[in-house]
Structures are given as structure tokens and as C-alpha cells.
Amino acid sequence: MNRYLVLWASLLKLSWKQRPGFLTLFLFCQVLDIAALAFTGLALRDAIDAAQRGVLASSIIAATTAAVCYAATSVLRGVAQTLRLQAIERIGVAELDTLIMRYIVGVEGIEHLERPQFLDRITVLRGAGWGVMDSTWGVVEAVLSTVRLAVLLLLLNTVDPWLLTLLPFAAVPLWLDKRGQGAVAKAEVATAEAMRLQKHLFTLLTTAGPGKELRITSAGGELARRQTAAWDEAVEARFRAQLASAGWKLCGWVIFMLGYAAALAFVVRQALTAGGSAGDIVLTVTVATTLRSAVQQTVSRSAEVASYKRLLDPFLWLRDYVAREKAARPVTGVPVPRRIEKGIAFDRVSYMYPGTKHPAVDEVTIDLPAGSVVAVVGEYGSGKTTLVKLLCKYYRPDEGKITVDGNDLTSLNAADWWERLSVAFQDFGRYRTTFGEAVGLGDLPNKDDSDRILAALRAADAEHLPSRLVNGLRTQLGKEFGGTDLSEGQWQKTALARASMREAPVMVVLDEPTASLDAPSEQTVFETYMRNARDLAQKTGAVTVVVSHRFSTVAGADLILVMRRGRLVEHGSHEELMALGGSYAELYSIQEKAYSLPQS
Ligand SMILES: Nc1ncnc2c1ncn2[C@@H]1O[C@H](COP(=O)(O)OP(=O)(O)OP(=O)(O)O)[C@@H](O)[C@H]1O
Q1: Would you say 482 and 440 are in contact if contact means Cβ atoms under 8 Å apart?
Q2: Which of 78, 258, 314, 546 gives 121 a disulfide partner, CB atoms 3.0 to 4.6 angstroms apart?
Q3: Does an H or E element contain 19, and which?
């Protein structure tokens, strides 16, 4: 509970900082509303009693006060609601959603984007800023509703103290509702994976790319069946929890209504037999009627706040996770070199993905000399991508270390290191920006420099691409935004060009950079990158790492690493490996026969 209170206090402080006027006016309206509510009941009693005594002037003044106060309550509530919604909209969406996104992208590692149990929480948190901020203002409203309730009970106390026994009856629905909401929140977390699966399958079934394949394989029906099953599983579990929650709610209300009815009967009897006035009856009926909506508001607001646990828990988890990650990876003062003098070295490096049984990279020891072009080859799942992800500092080795000119990579500032890299991964981003930006984003400070963009496009053998697009570099990409869609190869070239934007990286990573390209394009791209690599070697001593399945691509590399089941089984130049006659030579010969590669 404490951590929720601390969170709400900090978010209230943020609200105060961002919109002090909104918060002040909101509180002012709410307090005035409570006062107006009390005065309405009291003034009504006075009006009736004065009329009964025959004091017309007092009766009219009291009746007018009651009418004004009553009208004021509805105006004040309307203003308070508008202020609340505006503040939540502006602070929740503008500040908190941005903060959540910063948390997600600011972590050095990428495990939180890959592990299912983390993904469940990240999924819940997408666009959750509104809800998190609403919970904070909801707490304020719940407190004010409780004060309103207390004021109403005090008014009843002026009629008869026995009426205060209504309070425990009002508390029962609160408690039972909380119980029900807890069950709903639990069911949502438990079914998040099924929900994610059904969304994923739905996207697969309704997008053009996989759709083409599904027509041929006829797997659409099976996937649709799985999607329905996942949907049914999630909805069924959530429905059951909601049903249970509604049951608890109903029990709570029945108990309250019994107390309410008994209290009303008691007051009417007192008023008729124990010398009570007609004003007392009117006050009691008025307050008791309002009491019902006040209890309902307190219960529903508190329940709403309790239901936000489903957002607050992942939010607090993410915040703690980011803090833990930052503490575990302190920003140290070791500067990232602008030029690599000796090279990058792996020293008995091992890494195992959490939840798996075998290391993806197993005791790899190798020197990647400064200025060299290094190719990583091997069968599917042999650890090539993991090796380059370790180089990119997305993961930390479980054992061993990677050094850059003798400095442990873990001690280098991650943001500085990333600023000196150029990378193109096989699962590259397809940015729905303008075409120029989709390339320019590879070097943020120069994202609008068209000369640089055109040079990057040349490096990716894509200089003709802008002329084929309706608006050249200014062409909007993505059909869903009224723009143009690119072919798979064009998207890949765009990603390659993006990776060529930086002019002085110290490491270039190309993970399967040409998988979607035709053979001549692949050849041209690779030749260009080899030339670039030589230029960069002169300029920054950059190490260029190319991951590829195609041996024709890598034969010209200075150093070839052959991976198998996470282990580095062979390394050397093409000639050395061919002379060795090991698995590289065997695989090369197979591809040579298949594609008629040039003789070594
Ligand atoms: N995020 C992940 N979580 C768990 N295991 C993973 C993850 N990514 C990869 N692996 C596993 O680690 C091993 C190495 O995967 P990696 O992607 O590095 O291989 P690869 O040689 O690049 O494969 P490919 O040629 O298919 O791209 C594989 O067994 C794979 O299943």
C-alpha cells in the first residue's frame, strides 16, 4: 500500500507542477460542493420548520438558500469533472505516456522486450498514462467523497445519533467490491498471454504479407481456429472473474439497502412519536437520498482506484526494473574511443537467454582486429545474432568479457557506445515516416541532410529508389498513413542506407543485410560495404561485422567466424578455412555447387 501512496503523492506533485491552476480550482470546487450539499439539507429543514411556525420571511430566505445551494452543487460538480478530465488528459498522455516510453526504450538491455513474463506487463502499459494519472485524481476524489459522506452522516447525527450505524453498512459494499476487482485484475494478468496470442494471430491473418503465404499453405483455417481458441480462453476467464465481481458487488448493495431501509423507518417513527419536526423528516429523507449516491460514488471511485492496480503494478514494476538495471549498469567514466587502435576481443564469453537450457554463445574467445571485416557464419540458431547483440551491448555476457582496446565493454557508457555504431539487423524497423526520414534517422543530428541521405542510399545500392517514389525523399511511407508501401527488398535497402548514415562509426554491424535482395544487388551492396569498411578502417579503425548465410558474401572478409551451437568452431580467412578442410570448407563447397560460386 505504501508504495502506491508514494506513487500517488509523486504524481500529485507532478500535477501540481504541470497544472497548479487546475488542481487548485478542482479542490476549491469540490470543497464548495460539499459545503453546498450540507447547506441544502440544513436550509430545507429551516424552511419547513419556519413555514410550520408561520415565519414566512425566514422560510422564503431558507428555501431560496436551499435552491441556490442545490443549483451550485450540480454546477460545481460539472466544473470539477471537466477540470479533472482535462488535467488527466494533458498530464497523463503528455507526461506519463512519454515517461513510460522513455522507461521502455531507455533500458540498456532488451530482455524486457523479449521475455514473455515481462512482455505481459509492457503490453498492459501501452497507453496506460491516462489510467495511471486517473488513479491519482481518483484517490483525491475518493477522499473527498468520503468527506462528503462523513458530512452527510453528521447531518443525520443532528437528527438522531443512531443513524450513524449506517456507516458500517456503507463500508460493506466497499470491501466486497474491492474483493471482486482483485479477482478481475488477477484474471487480466493471467490471460494477458492468451490475449497477446490472439492479437498476434489476428494480425497474421489480416495482413497482406503472411496472407499470401497462408493462401498457399491453407494454414489460415487452423490459425483462425487457434485465434478463436485463444480469444475464448481469455474472454471466458475474464468473464468469469467479472461475474464473480458483480456477485460480490450485489451482496454489498443488498446489505447496504437493508440498513438504509431500517434507518429510514426508524427516523420516520422517531419524528412521528418522539417530538421530531417535519423539517427533521425532510432533512432525513433529503440526506438519506443523497447518502445513497454519496456511498455509491465513494464505493465506485474507491473501486475504480483499486482496479487501477492492474496498471499501477506493472508501472511500478517497470520503474523498479529501470532503476535496478541502471544500478546494475552504472554509467562509468570510461570514455568510448573515437578510434579503435587495437581491436575488439572476446575472452571466454558465454551468454544464455533467461529461461533456456543451453547457452546461445558458449565460451567464445577471439580477437577482432581494428579495421578488419569480420564475417560470422553458421547454421540457423548457432548464435550469430546473439554474438553481435552482445557486441552491441544489448546483453551482458554471463561469463567472460568483451573488451574494446582493452576496456571492458560493460564499463563503457551504453549511449556513447551506441552513438558510435552503425547497425542493420535482419528484423529491421519499417518506419512509417517520409522516405528521407526513414534513412536520415540513422544519424539523428543529420536526419534532414539530403546530401548525406543520398550518399547513404548510394552505399546501400539504392540511389535510384527516390526517383521511383512519387515525392522522392519526401514520399510518405506506409499505406495506413496514405503513403506508399515499399517492397521487402526496398525496405531492406532503406534499413541498409539508414545504417550508412553515420560517417565515423567504430563498429558496423550488418546482420543478414542482404537476405531480401537479388544476387546482383547483394554483390553490389557487399562490394560497396567492403570499400566503405576499408575507408572506415583508415578513419576510425572500425570493425565491420557481417552475419550471413551466403558464403559468396563473406569470402572476401579478413576473418571468418564459424559458429555451431553457440561455440566458435573455426576461424580464419577464407583461404585458411578452405585449406583446413573443416565445416566451412564443406558448407562452402555445397553452396559453390548449388550457386556455382567462383572457385577459391
Ligand atoms: N530472445 C531469445 N530468447 C530465448 N532464446 C533465444 C532468443 N533469441 C535467440 N534465442 C536462442 O538462442 C540461440 C541462438 O540464436 P541466434 O538468433 O543467435 O542464432 P542465429 O545463428 O543468429 O540464427 P539465425 O541464423 O536463424 O538468425 C537459438 O537457439 C535461439 O533459439
Answers
A1: no
A2: 314
A3: none
> Distance (Å, rounded) from C-alpha 263 to C-alpha 284?
10
Which residues does 210 contact at the CB level (< 8 Å), separation at least 6?
Answer: 204
Q: How many residues does the chain have?
A: 600
- The answer to pTM > 0.90 is no
Which strands form 407-408's sheet, in the order they lie side by side?
Answer: 361-369, 343-351, 399-404, 407-408
Q: Where are the domains of the chain?
A: 2-182+238-323, 337-420+504-600, 429-502
Q: β-pairing, 559-564 with 543-547? A: unpaired
Count of C-beta atoms within a 10 Å radius of residue 565? 14
Nearest CA to ligand 1 atom 6: 353
- Name the more confident of 179 and 173: 179
Q: What local confidence, expressed as pLDDT, does residue 508 receive?
A: 93
Nearest to 166 by CA among 54, 298, 53, 39: 298
CATH superfamily of 2-182+238-323: ABC transporter type 1, transmembrane domain (1.20.1560.10)
CATH class entry, domain 337-420+504-600: alpha beta
Spell out which residues line ligand 1, taking CB within 6 angstroms: 114, 353, 356, 360, 378, 380-386
Nearest CA to ligand 1 atom 1: 114
Cα(152) to centroid(ligand 1), Å: 64
Q: For residue 512, how far is its CA from the centre of ligand 1 (angstroms)?
A: 14
ipTM: 0.97
Predicted pLDDT of residue 573: 92
CB 79 within 8 A of CB 112: no
**Confidence band (pLDDT; 50, 70, 90) for 332?**
low
